[in-house]
């Protein structure tokens, strides 16, 4: 299993976290693989060390793979979680009140967006 944190909007427009798992199948010598997931684009991103983005929505449904650094995401309900390099997020809060994101380390942070 691969663990992913989903950020989504509920029926009231509030952003929430949900922990999900992607099942993997044994594919022998090459390791364990998930089923294929159709994607649109791959985007590389780097943000400044003082990145602190107030409430916003995801521009589209997308996976974010953090390559380094550490961030905090806060939902509209006030729940906060920290994520670090290697963590995977699924952002689905394209409508509603959105979420906040800020760097927890004073470094330029790199990530990959995979749009769905």
Structure description:
By secondary structure, this protein is mainly β. It has one domain: Jelly Rolls (Sandwich). The protein contains no helices and twelve strands. The chain has a six-stranded mixed beta sheet, with no helix packed on it. Strands 6-11-8-9 form a four-stranded antiparallel beta sheet, with no helix packed on it. Strands 3-4 form a two-stranded antiparallel ribbon. The protein is globular and about 45 Å long. The two termini are 21 Å apart. The mean pLDDT is 98.
Helices, strands, pairings?
Blueprint: E1 2-9, E2 15-22, E3 25-26, E4 32-33, E5 41-47, E6 52-56, E7 62-66, E8 70-75, E9 80-84, E10 88-91, E11 99-103, E12 109-115
What's this entry about, in short?
The protein is globular and about 45 Å long.
- Backbone structural class: mainly beta
**CATH topology (fold) name:** Jelly Rolls
The total number of structural domains is 1
Distance between the termini: 21 Å
Describe the main β-sheet briefly.
6 strands, mixed
- What is the CATH-assigned architecture? Sandwich
Strand portion: over 45%
The number of E-state strands comes to: 12
Read across the widest sheet, the strand sequence of neighbours is 2-1-10-7-12-5
Instruction: Based on Cα principal axes, name the global outline.
Output: globular
* Average predicted local confidence, pLDDT: 98
Order of helices and strands: EEEEEEEEEEEE
Summed up, the helix count is 0
Percent helix range: under 10%
> Which residues sit in consecutive blocks of at least 5 with pLDDT less than 50?
none
Radius of gyration: 15 Å
Q: CATH superfamily membership, which one?
A: Jelly Rolls
């Amino acid at each position: 299993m691969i663990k992913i944190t989903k950020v989504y909007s509920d029926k009231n427009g509030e952003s929430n976290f949900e922990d999900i798992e992607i099942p993997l199948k044994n594919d022998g010598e090459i390791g364990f693989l998930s089923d294929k997931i159709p994607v649109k684009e791959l985007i590389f991103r780097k943000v400044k060390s003082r990145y602190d983005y107030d409430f916003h929505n995801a521009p589209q449904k997308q996976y974010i793979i953090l390559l380094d650094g550490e961030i905090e995401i806060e939902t509209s309900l006030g729940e906060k979680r920290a994520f670090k390099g290697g963590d995977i997020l699924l952002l689905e809060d394209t409508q509603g009140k959105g979420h906040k994101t800020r760097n927890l380390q004073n470094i330029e942070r790199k990530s990959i967006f995979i749009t769905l």
